[in-house]
Amino acid sequence: MRVVNALSSFRLALVFCRSLPLGDDVVTGDISGITGSHSAHSGEEDALNSQALVPHVTEREKDESFQREENAIVVESTPKEEASIHEVTGTIQIPERKPLCDVSDQRVDVCEMYGDVRIPGNSSSVIFMEPSNAAPKELWQVHPYPRKGDEACLAGVRELTVKASSEAPQCTFRHDVPAIVFSVGGYTGNLFHDFTDLLVPLFLTARQFDGEVRFMVTDFKRWWIAKYLPVLQRLSKYPVIDHDRDEEVHCFKQVIVGLRAHKEFHIDPARAPNGYTMIDFTKFMRRVFSVGRETLNCIEDLSARKPRLLIIARKRSRAFTNVDEIVAAAEELGYEVVVGEADAGTNLARFAQIVNSCDVMMGVHGAGLTNFVFLPLNATVIQIVPWGGLEWIAVLDFGNPAKEMGLNYVQYSISIEESTLSEQYPRDHPALTDPMSFHKRGFHVVRSTFMANQNVKLDVSRFRDVLWKALEHMMQ
């Protein structure tokens, strides 16, 4: 984000208002004689009646209020609907308004506005209306996608200008619910990023409104909206607005630009509305896709059936080269084994049912493990960490989130002999003897060396202990 001019401005506090006419014309800062008509399109939300928002104040209430507030501004309407302002003796205390945008978070910049907020369709502007005589205006440039500082990611995210101004186009569509503006550009299409960059932050930002909120989406991808439509429909009762192609001037009383996000695949209850947790998120996702089991009750569930193991089998990099051996070893221990993979084209609802029917899920570090959100509480996740000093990212992306979701977590780091890198490099190559030296050269080097060009051949004798540990979790 670049802050072009972020100075605090002030809002005029009006204590008594009666019959103050409001309109959609460009605001000039003079509150007297504002005129204009409201318009809305048939079949859409009813236009707001601005005058209905102004309370009627009786003379008695006015006298009582004078006694409570010596420092006040009174607005009276004349027969010509021209407001005259009378200053009461004493010093006027004008509250300071917070900046429109919060740039303090390391992961995301979020702007939140209350009042008259106008969003012209197919534009890069979000306009917070203020009188022309207000303090110096604010102007912020933001990417409404929670990957702050990731230039490669944000290159695919439309930059928006959030500003305070006394001039804006007339409203053509007024809404009586808040709006959340966000992008589905960036890294969308990767299942892990779909969740950690968008679905978790969207839940964190929108769930508090209980469906009474509208989504305005930039960098609109129809296939992405279709894939996650059940989630979007559960969070909002209204159709998604394609901001890039829309031609209306949408007006709201509350707008949030950007999605609130904490750490990777994480919700901090202390910072979340209503104290939301990752358990709340996974419970929400299971209900969205109507999966059956909320909790794994080990004694009851396993008394009449075998424990069910799901192996996430990748097809490209970090793939298992001996799946059949792994299946045989698991079956010897008493597991019923299911092998599957969920990629960008997988029917998410159908795969969610498969995941939820399993007690243990295992896979090499990668986006496929994201499906653990559909596991029942108390199930177990086994993450196989490829060679290359990748334990830190394994814990960050899936280890810590699994525990926060109420799952048991087991981590297995492969040996050199279990990596196909041992076939690509001589034994004295730094990739095998000093993998951490690659980390010093940047993550792109780590990715190309250890993530994009490595497959896994599990030592099933060594891995048997891990499968036993998962069984022990179920017996506790």
Automatic annotation (TrEMBL):
Main localization category: Golgi
Membrane topology: Single-pass type II membrane protein
Compartments where located: Golgi apparatus membrane
Keyword RNA-binding: no
InterPro entries per the UniProt record, alphabetical: Glyco_transf_61_cat, Glycosyltransferase_61
GO CC annotation: Golgi membrane
Pfam families (UniProt xref): Glyco_transf_61
Alphabetical keyword list: Glycoprotein, Glycosyltransferase, Signal, Transferase
Top-rank taxon, per record: Eukaryota
Signal peptide per UniProt: 1-17
GO molecular-function terms, A-Z: pentosyltransferase activity
Domain Glycosyltransferase 61 catalytic residue range list: 276-382
Pathway: Glycan metabolism
Protein name: Glycosyltransferase 61 catalytic domain-containing protein
Species name: Ensete ventricosum (Abyssinian banana)
Lineage: Eukaryota, Viridiplantae, Streptophyta, Embryophyta, Tracheophyta
